[in-house]
Specification:
This protein has nine helices and eleven strands. Strands 3, 4, 5, 6, 9, 10 and 11 form a seven-stranded mixed beta sheet that branches. A two-stranded antiparallel sheet has the order 1-2. Strands 7-8 form a two-stranded parallel ribbon. A hairpin with a 2-residue loop joins strand 1 and strand 2. It is rod-shaped, with a radius of gyration of 32 Å. It is 43% helix and 23% strand. By secondary structure, it is α/β, with parallel strands linked by helices.
């Protein structure tokens, strides 16, 4: 096993030509340098130096080992720079779980901004439904979750949250629906329509059923999908009407008080002070701000 500290001594000798000069450069005694070089020769099992009086020169084996020593030194410098970047939040990788419309709304713009401000930071994105991202976060499979809530709830003490944006739900109607040309839609006017919604278990389904219930009816849900693009296609085909978050699928505003989706970034409690996490959360927050 070669001691890398002795490679540094060999490099100094190659650079300065004498044991005395190498010792001065390394702030060691000439005796210590000679001992280190002798130990290095013992480690590699070959002569590395030709001694001619006070001067020494490298053998072929010594010259070869110096080239490797230079490569080792360069890697150590790169490692030091990488660790410094990691400590400052300007280098490293962050795994993010986000639902599709938030990827479009904030994650992709944040990645674009980081390519300029912190090109050493890599963001790996996993497309996952908002309600499914928090379990992945708590299991350690991702570092940050972009998730949502539809009504105020008690904070999970295991998470630290960073609010990003709030969006209303819109009504999406088939092209030939009687209300399609209106500036807004009263949910009560849709009581007799078929509905397209997310399946049970998706929080958006709960929002639709609650909003319709407050309007005085239970929606007749005949088509389901977790994909808002698929929901939009089914509505466009005349299969029913829908109520969806505005950034996922733009429709017409709900008349009166519309349901809201509050979108936030979540990290495991304690990790919010990690430089990479802090940098990404700040960049996501900036990307979520309305553009002038």
């Amino acid at each position: 096993m070669i001691d890398p500290r002795r490679l540094r001594v060999l490099r100094a000798l190659a650079d300065h030509g004498t044991v005395t000069a190498a010792a001065q450069a390394l702030h060691l005694t000439p005796s210590a340098v000679s001992q280190q070089l002798a130990a290095l020769e013992s480690e590699v099992g070959q002569e590395l130096l030709r001694r001619r009086g006070r001067r020494v020169s490298l053998t072929s084996a010594g010259e070869l080992l110096v080239r490797h020593a230079n490569a080792v030194a360069a890697e150590l410098e790169r490692a030091q720079a990488t660790l410094a970047g990691l400590a400052s939040g300007t280098a490293g990788r962050v795994e993010v779980g986000s639902f599709a419309s938030a990827i479009t709304q904030v994650v992709a713009p944040a990645i674009a901004a980081l390519r300029t401000s912190a090109p050493g930071v890599t963001v790996r994105v996993r497309d996952v439904e908002g309600h499914a991202s928090v379990p992945l976060l708590l299991d350690g499979e991702i570092d940050l979750a972009i998730t949502e809530e539809y009504r105020p709830r008690r904070d999970d003490g295991r998470l630290t949250r960073f609010p990003l944006y709030t969006e209303p739900f819109d009504v999406v109607l088939p092209p030939h629906h009687p209300l399609a040309g209106e500036p807004s839609a009263d949910l009560r006017a849709l009581a007799e329509d078929d509905w397209v919604a997310t399946p049970p278990g998706n929080p958006v389904r709960d929002v639709v059923e609650l909003a319709c219930g407050e309007a005085g009816f239970a929606p007749r849900i005949t088509q389901t999908s977790n994909d808002f693009r698929a929901i939009g296609a089914l509505v466009h085909a005349g299969a029913g009407v829908a109520l969806v978050p505005r950034n996922a699928l733009r429709g017409i505003p709900v008349r009166g008080t519309a349901p809201l989706r509050r979108v936030f970034a979540a990290v495991r409690k304690g990790s919010e002070d990690h430089p990479l996490t802090r940098l990404l959360c700040e960049t996501l927050t900036a990307a979520a701000q309305p553009q002038p």
